[in-house]
Design a protein that fits this description.
The complex is a heterodimer of chains A (about 300) and B (about 280).
Chain A (H helix, E strand, L loop, with lengths): L18 H6 L1 H9 L12 H8 L5 H8 L1 H15 L11 H14 L2 H32 L1 H15 L3 H12 L3 H25 L3 H9 L4 H38 L5 H11 L2 H33 L1
Chain B lengths: L1 H10 L18 E10 L6 E11 L4 E5 L6 H9 L6 E6 L2 E2 L7 E4 L11 H6 L8 H14 L15 H13 L5 E5 L7 H17 L3 E6 L2 H7 L2 E6 L10 E7 L11 H13 L6
Parallel strand pairs in B: 3-8, 3-9, 6-7, 7-8
Antiparallel strand pairs in B: 1-2, 1-4, 4-5, 9-10
Chain lengths: ~300, ~280
């Protein structure tokens, strides 16, 4: 999976990536909590203060437009290079050709099918993988015994490249939805597992002790103190897991499928349809970004609520 | 100083709310019986406390004074059941402490409030398991009023000052109806003025809910201002390599609130500071 070039896929760097997640992760919070606070009311965090300080960059719509600048520039360069005849249409078809390919596939009713089945696989695999990651992460983050017993095995499994699973999964589960969803599940599991188990180990010890002093223990302590404390870290793990899920989706669909965006990629390659190939890549980028943005909104809310 | 004091006392609604005493647990006696605490084993063994014997009377405010690292907090943690002694026992009301003891409540040096909850919800964490939702709600409201935070009930800990967070932490401890209230340098991290206000608040609370209070402090003035008795933890002469034990017990004369400028207290202050190895001038 390293050759696919996703930094999150190596498994070692799957700790909080986003700023919110980092700020809210246990480690940084501990340092903050240990600092004695002086008297005098803390400054209220007004929603307007960020806007006035950062000016235009604080405005959501302005940020969206600025973020679209680079894609627009790339599109313009693409259009220019194709109309200037720098590339043959097999190497790089014009943007218009890609749009035509999209319209063609929509009219045949195939595009919606490809997108729908791919999205469904990602969401299913992501949901199961994240849930399992949460459970095992909690188990290993809280129990030293579970840590000693399970961590080496899970670490070794994580080292297995995603593509290595494919033949085995096909052998066991045949070429169907199960094998694909399972592969995506494997991809989504590790980021959540790692962030949750690490974050739980770094929950402010003082808070946990205070909880214990007031008679909280076991599951009640977990749900009252420990889980809420790691909610922001969980969300940054979820975002990584979602990115991994899309990555593993393509791995699954490239090899064995008759539908989906990954299939569209290989099928177009075999038929020399570079326009469709580019279409699939653009769709993967757009859909991946949209799902990540949705999760980002949820993360923002969670950090505000729980940090 | 007196002016500051009296104004602060009127500023807190606490003095107007002694009715909060209703439904409070009765004060319990605490006995330390040959208490020892050693950390580590073998060559790395390090004895912090040894042979601590003392009886705390029900309803008394006992200050535990000593240099840093002498085991004050260890003594308090053993009483709360957060830590188990290596030898001897802590008895509360005649029965030994085993594990987290529901008859105690602790307020730590830091407020240790859950940042994602409101002050109100944080105080509610202190409520005993047996209390009904309705009882709990009215009790939390009463306690927030007692510590002067009724208008901040819906605020989150990071939206209030350190002193206010510490008051909420005190209210959380009181919510437990503790027979023994354990305070681990609760005002140590506050600025001087806030600390004096908090000390007065503590006296008001003790008047309203007369529980046994064990107060760990390194502040001699605080001990003299608040306590009925003071025990001094330290190493005995000639046994510097052993753990600390009670080297001195002091009865503080006079009823509270005490005049912070009293000559007698000044003399005791000097003497206590000398026992702590500091020049008392």
């Amino acid at each position: 999976m390293t050759q696919l070039g996703n930094p999150g896929a190596s498994g070692n760097s799957v700790y909080a990536t986003s700023q919110e997640g980092l700020k809210a992760s246990g480690v940084l919070k501990t340092a903050e909590a240990d600092r004695p606070r002086q008297g005098g009311p803390a400054p209220e965090r007004s929603p307007a203060s960020g806007r006035s300080a950062a000016g235009v960059l604080g405005n959501g719509w302005a940020r969206l437009l600025l973020g679209l600048l680079l894609p627009a520039a790339v599109l313009a360069a693409w259009q220019w290079s194709t109309s200037a005849g720098l590339f043959s249409s097999v190497q790089l078809p014009a943007p218009g050709a890609v749009v035509e390919a999209a319209v063609d596939l929509i009219q045949r009713g195939e595009l919606a099918q490809h997108v729908a089945i791919s999205t469904q696989r990602v969401l299913l695999g992501f949901a199961f993988g994240a849930a399992l990651g949460l459970v095992f992460g909690a188990l290993i983050g809280l129990s030293k015994v579970a840590d000693v017993l399970l961590s080496p095995t899970i670490g070794a499994l994580r080292a297995v490249p995603s593509l290595a699973w494919v033949p085995l999964l096909i052998l066991w589960m045949k070429i169907g939805e199960d094998s694909k969803v399972t592969l995506i599940l494997i991809g989504a599991f590790f980021p959540v597992f790692t962030t949750v188990s690490l974050a739980l180990r770094h929950v402010d010890k003082n808070l946990v002790e205070a909880g214990r002093a007031f008679g909280l223990k076991g599951v009640k302590l977990l749900t009252t103190v420990q889980l809420p404390a790691v909610v922001p870290a969980v969300f940054s793990g979820l975002r990584l897991a979602l990115a991994q899920a899309w990555l593993f989706l393509v791995a699954a669909e490239l090899i064995a499928s008759s539908m989906g965006l990954g299939f569209l990629l290989t099928d177009s390659q075999n038929n020399g349809r570079t326009d469709r190939l580019l279409l699939a890549i653009v769709l993967l980028a757009i859909i991946g970004k949209i799902t990540d943005a949705l999760l980002g909104v949820a993360e923002k809310w969670a950090v505000k609520r729980w940090a | 100083m007196t002016a500051v004091l009296s104004s602060s006392r009127h500023a807190t609604p606490a003095s107007a709310a002694p009715s909060a005493a209703s439904g409070s647990g009765s004060a319990l006696a605490v006995s330390f019986r040959g208490l020892n605490r050693t950390f580590g084993t073998g060559e790395n063994a390090h004895t912090v406390l040894r042979d601590v014997n003392f009886d705390v009377r029900p309803g008394e405010v006992l200050a535990i004074l000593g240099p840093s690292g002498c085991g004050k907090s260890t003594l308090l943690r053993a009483t709360a059941g957060l830590d188990a002694p290596s030898g001897g026992s802590v008895d509360i009301d005649g029965t030994p402490v085993q594990g987290i003891d529901s008859r105690c409540a602790v307020a730590f040096q830091e407020p240790r409030l859950l940042p994602w909850h409101t002050l109100q919800a944080n105080v509610a964490i202190g409520l005993p398991k047996s209390s009904s939702a309705k009882q709990g709600k009215s009790k939390v409201a009463r306690l927030l009023e007692l510590v002067g935070l009724d208008t901040f009930a819906k605020h989150r800990p990071r939206e209030v000052s350190g002193g206010m967070a510490q008051r909420a932490s005190l209210a959380r401890a009181l919510a437990r109806n503790p027979g023994v209230l354990l305070l681990d340098e609760p005002f140590g991290a506050l600025d001087a003025l806030t600390r004096i206000k908090m000390q007065d608040l503590l006296l008001d609370i003790h008047a309203a809910e007369p529980t046994t209070v064990l107060l760990v402090t390194h502040d001699v003035d605080e001990a003299l201002q608040l306590a009925d008795r003071i025990i001094l933890l330290g190493k005995e002469e000639g046994r510097e390599n052993d753990g600390a034990t009670i080297v001195r017990t002091v009865d503080v004369p006079g009823s509270r609130p005490r005049d912070r400028g009293s000559v007698e207290l000044a003399r005791m202050r000097r003497s206590l500071l000398e026992s702590l190895g500091v020049d008392g001038h």
